[in-house]
């Protein structure tokens, strides 16, 4: 009889510990704030950003270039298209039109853009130069028909070694919500 009561007591204690751990973990997760930041000159990246923002219940902020990109600016077939000229100039830092200081208050940043020549568009570097993201977890997502994310991510890690670029993922321009959700679930 004593052993039965002891077992019940141990089970109750174990249940209490597990319950407390779950509540504590949930509270910590609830205290982590996330934001989605995108540069999306042709709307593909913004669509994926919206999916992430929806899943994470996070605000979506767009990096708006001071000088908007035209179709010709993004046409790699043109010899002197703006995207090519910026990508090949290591000092290029296109200006951002909007104030994005608010993103500095978030703990986790989902940073998205297209891939240009296997690297981040230079306006992403402008964003990282301008705003203090020290101590933030930064998850990179890119849109591309075929360019991998690892060159892009390595470029960021090389240029900004003090920032915490946790992981990156490439999405096709026609991505679906379930693929985005699967990636987000894998980050937990």
From TrEMBL:
SUPFAM superfamilies, per the entry: Flavoproteins
Boundaries of every Flavodoxin-like domain copy: 36-186
Coiled-coil region: none
Keyword Methyltransferase: no
Keywords: Flavoprotein, FMN
One example GO MF annotation: FMN binding
Record-linked InterPro entries: Flavodoxin/NO_synth (IPR008254), Flavoprotein-like_sf (IPR029039)
Keyword Cell membrane tagged: no
Protein name: Flavodoxin
Organism: Succinivibrio dextrinosolvens
């Amino acid at each position: 009889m004593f052993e039965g009561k002891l077992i019940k007591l141990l089970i109750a204690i174990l249940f209490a510990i597990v319950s407390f751990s779950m509540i504590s973990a949930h509270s910590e997760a609830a205290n982590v704030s996330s934001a989605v930041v995108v540069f999306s000159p042709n709307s593909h990246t913004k669509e994926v950003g919206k999916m992430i923002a929806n899943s994470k219940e996070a605000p979506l902020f767009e990096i708006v270039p001071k000088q908007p990109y035209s179709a010709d600016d993004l046409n790699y077939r043109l010899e002197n298209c703006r995207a090519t000229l910026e990508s090949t100039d290591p000092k290029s830092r296109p200006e951002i039109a909007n104030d994005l200081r608010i993103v500095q208050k978030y703990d986790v940043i989902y940073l998205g853009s297209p891939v240009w020549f296997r690297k981040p568009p230079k306006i992403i570097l402008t964003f990282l130069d301008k705003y203090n993201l020290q101590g933030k977890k930064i998850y990179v997502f890119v849109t591309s028909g075929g360019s991998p994310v690892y060159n892009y991510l390595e470029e960021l890690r090389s240029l900004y070694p003090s920032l915490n670029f946790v992981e990156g993922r490439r999405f096709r321009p026609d991505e679906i919500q379930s693929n985005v959700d699967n990636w987000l679930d894998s980050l937990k």
